[in-house]
Request: fold
Amino acid sequence: GKNNSGGIALIRGGLRSKLPILRVLTFMRQPFTMASPTEYYGFSISVLNHLSAGLFEWDVVPVAENGDLLPLLRQGAGDLIANPMQMPLDNIKNDSNVSYSSWPLMYTSVSAMGYAESPKLSFLSPLFPFSWNVWLAVVVAFVILSATLYSIDKISPNDYRRPKFSISESVFFVYSSFMMSKLSAKAIKPSSRIFILILWFASLMYCTTYGTNAFFLLIRSNRALPFTSLDGLYNQSGRYYRVLVENSTSSGILAAQPEGSVYRKLATADLWVESEEAALALIKNQTALPDGRQPVYVGDGAAISYAVAKSCDLMMAGSNELYRPLFLAMRAGLDPQLRRTINDRIQSMSDRGLLDQYKDTYWSEIKCSSNDYLINAKELNSIHIEQVSGIFIVLACALGLSFIVLLLEHAFYQLQLYWHRMKVNSRLEFMKPYQAEVTNVTPSGIRVRVQGWVEFLPNQMLSPDPTKKMTAADLEIRIGDSVEVVYLGNDPKTGERLFRRNAESVEVGKIGI
Reply:
């Protein structure tokens, strides 16, 4: 038979010790009192073992399942109740046979439990991997990045008169970067290149994060109840059958609430069952009730949270509603000193966190099979802004770094311009002709080497008659030809030297011939 002392039998010389023996009333209820072939165990047994050490021994007085323990305690059938009990409101005035501990053993509530449902896919489902604040941040970043790319490309001094990106091209380029699609457009200016490089890196992080979360959401949808409170359950009465246990404490608490309250209305069950086990079996088996509605059990929060911890298919709602403490009930006729010592030990266990440790031992085990669930459904949620803030920090760094490079471009350009002016002004004379070698011919003009410097002459500076709009090809100017150019001074804005082909010179010859 089982060791009624929870596996602790004090034997001295074949006789039991002289400690008082208390009769403990209980019935089998997970996770409070459970039994193996050799001993009792559970939350209540762990608490009793701690309370009784060196103070008293105890024997279990088994009671029929879901039996009413308080009348038995009042009648003297036991000395204390193992299962934590709710203290009746009129206990102090009207119940002289029962004494409750000064400190609660734990707290519970009236909660609801149902089978978790998978969300149905809709045209908004692709938005679910990110929360709304992430999508808002993406839109804001998209606008800022497009404006930044256009601005730095336009005001960069490198090829500043011919910016690469228009407003529409900037918008499309950033959008394509977010989508990780290939573009034929390429950045030329250093500031734009650095900006786009970091943008692509951030886009890679963004797409990887989105894709990973979307993938797991597709293979393991985040199942949930369509309500989170008892009030929400009542508003969805047309979808569910409310299941309550007959004559249970939870149904009594609901019935005792003010008339017209949601809790009072929930006290009227659609289906009454005889025990918690029967109610849990209805939910776990997804038993379809009339009209195809699914059952939802409304009962003790402690029992429901334990059932939910054992199964990833079940979910709990209303965990903090009608919150109430549960106490250790003792026979008032017990030795007063013994009752005071028990109270002191319960207070000490509470202060030291032992009661919470015992509760965690039995309520925190998640028993999902690793073969059935690669990821717990409870862990799958939309990604929030704080989880991807690093991506936006990278983008902010891209903005800052690109503007720093832009400033360096301007500084280098001004330095180069100053050096250019200082070098060339003293070597060339205004309106004086110079011999130049053609180094490159383009549709818009030619590049020539004058006094060791390569200069550009547009087409209108080549022909003696600018109105004819003749090109270098029309004038039969080729690479390697020698032409005579006239120095016209420097452009006041850019500092570039200006030349035109000498109209009086008609000789064109090859250098080296």
